[in-house]
Amino acid sequence: MQNKKRVLLISCTCVLILVGIWFSTTNMYKFAKGYLLFKSHSASGEMQEPTEPPADIKSTEKELYPVRPKTGEEIGELYIPKLNATLPIFHGTNEDELEKGVGHFADSVLPGEKDNSVLSGHRDTVFRRLGQVGEGDLLIVRTSAGEFTYKINKVRIVDKDDRTVIVPKPRATLTVSTCYPFTFIGAAPERYVLVAYLSSKKTQ
Q1: Each residue of 15-71: pLDDT tens digit?
Q2: Could you say which residues form the signal peptide (predicted)?
Q3: 58 domain-assigned
Q4: Which residues are designated catalytic?
Q5: Is residue 13 in a domain?
Q6: Are residues 48 and 81 in the same domain?
Q7: Residues 100 and 154 both lie in one domain
Q8: Nearest-CA neighbor of 71 among 23, 41, 25, 103?
């Protein structure tokens, strides 16, 4: 009986050893095969990190104004369909610019660009009829960069010292302001403000 047990134990041990050898050999073969494939792919460049796309196919937004205007320079015109009026726009809001037409606040973006482009003018000259323009009406600005159509979203009456008129905006906005009330004699205490959002554009 003891001999039979010993033979059976030895047989089981041999079987387990053979299974272990077979398992180890199979896994080693798979590992070696995978390693060789990895090395060959790396050498051919198939496993390399993806590179940046060429510069010519990157999506870049065209710069509207490669050259920025100088103070006093005429930069375009403002067309107000409701009034059938076309008004020249000058860069700057000093009295020299406002005497000639609509002034563009120099610290704001240019028409068509993202953010808040601010225009202003005198109520007794270029903007004497601006009070007839309100929500839903269009403001069209034409510059060297193209034609930009804005739709008035809001009309505001603010104090003359209210600086919220020139604050940055999260989208392309045109803010147009003039003194208010329109019939006030002397220095008006308030401002009539049109806030319009860009609705379409035709760039050059």
Answers
A1: 556 545 544 554 444 444 444 444 444 344 433 433 443 443 333 357 899 999 999
A2: none
A3: no
A4: 122, 179
A5: yes
A6: no
A7: yes
A8: 103
- Which H/E stretch holds residue 173? strand 173-180
Per residue in 51-66, pLDDT tens? 443 443 333 357 899 9
Q: Are residues 130 and 186 in the same domain?
A: yes
Question: Is 63 part of any domain?
Answer: no
For residue 121, what are its two tokens? Answer: 């003018």
Residue with tokens 């403000």: 193
We report the CATH number of the domain holding residue 156 as 2.40.260.10
**Paired tokens of 133:** 């323009």
In this structure, the answer to whether residues 19 and 83 fall within a common structural domain is no
Give the range of the structural domain holding residue 80, as residue numbers without chain letter: 74-203
On whether the CB atoms of residues 87 and 77 are closer than 8 A, the answer is yes
Maximal C-alpha separation, the chain: 128
| Cβ burial 148-161 (10 Å sphere, 16+ → b, else e) | bbbebeeebeeeee
96-127: pLDDT as tens digits: 999 999 999 999 999 999 999 999 999 999 99
What predicted TM-score, i.e. pTM, was given to this entire model? 0.70
